[in-house]
Amino acid sequence: MASSIGMIGGTGPEGKGLAARFARAGLEVIIGSRSAERGEEAATDVRGIAGGKVRGGTNADAAGADVIVITLPYSGQAETLEGLRDQIGDKLVVSTVVPMQFAAGKVTMLQIEDGSAAEETQRILPEAHVVGAFQNLAARKLFDVEHELDGDVIVCSDDKEALRQVIWLTEQIPGLRGVNGGPLASSRYVEGITTLLVHINRNYKTESHVKIVGI
Amino acid sequence: MASSIGMIGGTGPEGKGLAARFARAGLEVIIGSRSAERGEEAATDVRGIAGGKVRGGTNADAAGADVIVITLPYSGQAETLEGLRDQIGDKLVVSTVVPMQFAAGKVTMLQIEDGSAAEETQRILPEAHVVGAFQNLAARKLFDVEHELDGDVIVCSDDKEALRQVIWLTEQIPGLRGVNGGPLASSRYVEGITTLLVHINRNYKTESHVKIVGI
User: Fold this and answer.
1) What's the N-to-C CA distance of chain B in angstroms?
2) Interface test with B, best of A147, A193, A201, A202 (most B CBs within 10 A)
3) Of A179, A188, A210, the CB nearest to B212
4) Rounded to two decimals, what is the model's pTM?
5) How does strand A129-132 pair with strand B67-70?
6) ipTM of predicted complex
7) Residue pLDDT, tens place only, A7-24
């Protein structure tokens, strides 16, 4: 199915972690950044630990891939995606973004007018086939490619074929299962789970995942 | 610890299901309702399947218990709790309420000014020690007391001792584990998970639970 994956804002921990897992799965990965140099640096890091076909470039370079994965911080999402609308067009776009705010030691979700970061992405990229996924995975565990994962990725979209493709993409990563979470509007609950996991991780000094039991 | 549990609005599927599990665990349960007769009917049903010390009565009767568990529909929460403020006082109060709306085949969360049903309960009962818990359990599986449960109950409170007591209470039910989800404000994410599970259950024609892996 997908032959290349472009990571928009792929130089942070979540972007590099997912890139490493996709590269391990044999997919071609382009790590995009505002600066091509930083994209290339991140690609060198990822190749170093995961091998595979990983290159770096600008976000526009990454937007040329078959499937676009957004790993931007929420604060940079609107501006960056508006600048890539034409390159992205009607491609499959995966939103991993969680609109979390860390302030005075407290973690909370930002109030998003569209309901979720994923729905905001759909509004900014009206022709794209937007899917919410991968929001709940701990970046450090993703990047540690020798660590076996064990968790569910809840996948939400209004487009059944796009949802099916992202479940397939999820299951290229050993230890992960894609779970159909329903419409794109359900992404708000999945994004919320990440905030909850931050609290749980603090309480138990761990990096936890979520699993849906009974399906 | 808790010697009696009072279920406010305990005649619905969630209330009867939890009451059955608490009764099986050897706890004394009072099922409250607007009408004492309906409370008694529900108690007869629960005793029939679970045995134990279960009696019915009004919501005010249930509010006399050591620990108060709220299993009201969200629409009835504010009015009912305002009428019980004095009886409840500074007791331990567990909110299981999910502010879900079913309209035109779609499931969504209501926008709650306080952030969650649990935080609204804390505002209405300012002296109570409010804890959010048990929102994500499928009612039918709870009531089927021969069915072995396997899931996590995410417990949220600003009061550490209350949180500890509700984790204890959770673990009186075989197969359930209590997980410290952080402050009461985290309840909004836990309530959201229920809405997500409704979507997942529709997609997979099942009744799913949630588990936190890695703690």
Assistant:
1) 25
2) A193
3) A210
4) 0.95
5) unpaired
6) 0.93
7) 999 999 999 999 999 999
